[in-house]
């Protein structure tokens, strides 16, 4: 009751209100700065400790003197300026020392030592300030209240430090701030309750209340400026730190080139969605996107242009995806989309079609028109799995299927595709073994002169019987060999063996060997050809290498250099499958081509299909005008053969004239022909 009476009866309540506001505001700011100080280390800790001590000391000192100036007494009052300044220094220095102890790793030292020191510093500031409060009267002290004030300050300060050491709970700051405010207010008014003044006879009150009010206002303003500086510094630093953390977090979760989500963010988002599915979350679609024909862009236009293409692709993918969907770059030219709320194949197909269409639009990069496309594999959750690894695997399988069905399309995962990929993996392993053990064989398909019906050559064709899967078509295993990087070794072995076989044939029978696009880009190919000819003794004029138009598309300058070197060896070049794909008359003009082979897709429609007939006639006339020989392949009927002969094709091959056969059978066939000629 004495404390309440001291507040209500012995103080000007306006001063008390101002002091309370200052105390609560300063305590909240001080608690915030204390927490930050105890979390820092090194030079930054020194900075925050100084700022915290000054701010808390100013708030505590201002609270004390504003409330003290509101104390009403009948005796004259004056202030000792030196002691007043000393009391402020005690508050700041003592709180600073307490923060040093409160930052200790030992909980006992931090709470007991640090809290007690801060509480004692507040108490010392109060009582030194009271000694600066000079009253012309008889002063008496009640030591019970003095001791109570010390206990309140130390216990509340220690409790505040204990709460602030819990860095994981943000609410602790407010609780600690209220405890600091209680420590200051409890100390002050308990200490003032211990203080009493008896005026001496003959003296009257001469305190200037207006001057005290002005002084209190000045102290409050200065203290508020200091406290405001402290909290402003904290907020500015926190904003800068938050911006820095946000930038670091953005860098950690986004691709630097495209600003899309990176693999880390994609992986975490996918895992989160899969976990949500298990607890009743919404279904979604995972789309894996892979660019088609991106590598030639880097090779021809350079990597800076390739980076611009990737940035354009990223923008297009964001346009193709829906708002809220996650678009990520997870590799060089590999992207992924998590489409939320996709409940069926129809919706997923609509998004995938839009992605394929948007990616296929031409773009202009540094004045060059770039045409690129993308393939998409789609997996649905939960239909195709609820585990991230399973969904990624199924989407990759669907993507693999899309790329092996013409590219620039999409595929939705189906269980049957697992069988396809398993076969693919099995063939890859078996093909590696076959390449190491030389398990391939060569058969030869005869080529006949259309006018005389005599064998003029043979095309070497590669065959492979897989131990697990039986006979495998070259159209299936050659692309796998190209992907695995085995085609150069296999091609070199075929060329060497075929040249050795052809060396035993009659001198007028030539050899044709196919060269894959991958081989054509190998600068060692001319050396490989020269070595095969030297080892076998076969005349270069009897060897003909067959290339496709697709091979010329990848890097025509490199292909031109390679083919020119091969021609200089005396070896002839033929253009296989002419009329399909990206046919261009410039190839016939620029490259050292001596023969055109009409693709069987046209020949097999003869003579009834008007379009095919027109194309065959045009190619035959073109070859005649360019002094190039023309070979028609894929002849299976007498009517096709008659049409070819009628329109001037030089040579023919196909199942009608002769199927691919082993070397021994081919030697028998050429031997019979020689006997018939001699007879």
Describe what you observe in this structure.
This protein is α/β, with parallel strands linked by helices and 679 residues long. Helices cover 60% and strands 16% of the residues. The protein contains 25 helices and 20 strands. Strands 12-13-15-16-17-18-19-20 form an 8-stranded mixed barrel, surrounded by 5 helices. Helix 13 (388-403) links the parallel strand 10 (373-381) and strand 11. Helix 5 packs across helix 6 (143-164) and helix 11 (303-320) runs antiparallel to helix 12. The model has no long low-confidence stretch (mean pLDDT 81).
Shape: rod-shaped
Q: How far is it from the N-terminal to the C-terminal residue, by CA?
A: 143 Å
Oligomeric organization of the protein chains: single chain
The count of helical stretches stands at: 25
Overall pLDDT score: 81
Task: Record the strand order, biggest sheet.
Answer: 12-13-15-16-17-18-19-20
Helix content: 55-70%
List unreliable stretches of 5+ residues: none
């Amino acid at each position: 009751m004495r404390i309440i009476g001291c507040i209500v009866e012995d103080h000007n309540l306006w001063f008390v209100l101002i002091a309370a506001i200052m105390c609560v505001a300063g305590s909240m700011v001080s608690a915030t700065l204390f927490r930050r100080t105890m979390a820092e280390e090194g030079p930054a800790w020194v900075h925050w400790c100084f700022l915290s001590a000054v701010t808390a000391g100013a708030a505590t000192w201002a609270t004390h003197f504003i409330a003290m100036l509101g104390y009403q007494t009948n005796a004259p009052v004056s202030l000792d300026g030196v002691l007043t300044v000393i009391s402020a220094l005690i508050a700041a220095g003592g709180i600073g020392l307490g923060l040093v102890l409160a930052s200790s790793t030992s909980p006992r030292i931090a709470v007991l030592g640090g809290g007690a020191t801060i509480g004692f510093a507040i108490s010392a500031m109060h009582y030194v300030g009271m000694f600066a409060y000079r009253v012309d009267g008889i002063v008496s002290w009640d030591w019970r209240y003095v001791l109570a004030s010390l206990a309140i300050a130390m216990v509340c300060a220690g409790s505040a430090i204990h709460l602030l050491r819990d860095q994981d709970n943000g609410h602790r700051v407010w609780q600690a701030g209220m405890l600091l405010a209680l420590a200051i207010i409890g100390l002050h008014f308990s200490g003032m309750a211990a203080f009493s003044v008896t005026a001496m006879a003959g003296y009257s009150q001469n305190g200037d209340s207006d001057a005290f009010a002005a002084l209190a206002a000045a102290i409050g303003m200065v203290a508020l400026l200091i406290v405001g500086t402290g909290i402003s510094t904290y907020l500015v630093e926190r904003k800068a730190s938050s911006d820095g953390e946000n930038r670091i977090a953005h860098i950690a979760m986004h691709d630097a080139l495209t600003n899309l989500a990176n693999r880390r963010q994609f992986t975490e988002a996918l895992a989160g969605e899969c976990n949500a599915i298990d607890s009743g979350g919404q279904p979604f679609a995972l789309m894996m996107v892979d660019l088609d024909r991106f590598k030639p862009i880097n090779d021809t236009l350079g990597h800076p242009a390739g980076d611009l293409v990737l940035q354009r692709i990223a923008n297009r993918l964001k346009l193709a995806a829906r708002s809220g969907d996650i678009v990520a770059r997870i590799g060089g030219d590999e992207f992924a989309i998590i489409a939320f709320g996709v409940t069926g194949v129809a919706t997923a197909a609509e998004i995938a079609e839009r992605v394929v269409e948007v990616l296929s639009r031409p773009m202009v990069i540094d004045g060059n028109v770039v045409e690129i496309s993308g393939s998409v594999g789609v997996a649905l959750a939960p239909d195709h799995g609820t585990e991230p690894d399973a969904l990624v695997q199924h989407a990759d399988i669907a993507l693999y299927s899309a790329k092996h069905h013409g590219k620039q399309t999409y595929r939705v995962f189906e269980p049957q595709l697992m069988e396809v990929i398993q076969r693919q993996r099995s063939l890859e392993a078996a093909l590696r073994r076959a390449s190491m053990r030389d398990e391939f064989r060569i058969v030869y398909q005869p080529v006949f002169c259309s006018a005389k019906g005599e064998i003029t050559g043979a095309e070497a064709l590669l065959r492979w019987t897989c131990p697990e899967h039986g006979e495998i078509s070259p159209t299936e295993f050659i692309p796998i060999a190209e992907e695995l990087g085995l085609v150069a070794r296999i091609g070199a072995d075929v060329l060497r063996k075929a040249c050795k076989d052809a060396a035993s044939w009659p001198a007028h029978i030539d050899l044709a060997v196919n060269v894959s696009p991958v081989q054509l880009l190998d600068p060692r190919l001319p050396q490989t050809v020269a070595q095969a000819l030297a080892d076998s003794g076969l005349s270069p004029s009897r060897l003909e290498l067959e290339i496709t138009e697709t091979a010329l598309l990848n890097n025509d300058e490199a292909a031109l250099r390679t083919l020119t070197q091969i021609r200089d060896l005396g070896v002839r070049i033929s253009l296989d499958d002419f009329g399909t794909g990206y046919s261009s008359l410039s190839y016939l003009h620029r490259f050292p081509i001596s023969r055109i082979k009409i693709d069987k897709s046209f020949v097999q429609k003869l003579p009834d299909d008007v379009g095919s007939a027109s194309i065959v006639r045009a190619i035959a006339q073109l070859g005649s005008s360019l002094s190039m020989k023309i070979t028609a392949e894929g002849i299976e009927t007498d009517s096709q053969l008659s049409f070819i002969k009628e329109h001037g094709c030089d040579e023919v091959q196909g199942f009608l004239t002769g199927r691919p056969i082993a070397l021994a059978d081919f030697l028998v066939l050429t031997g019979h022909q020689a006997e018939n000629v001699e007879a």
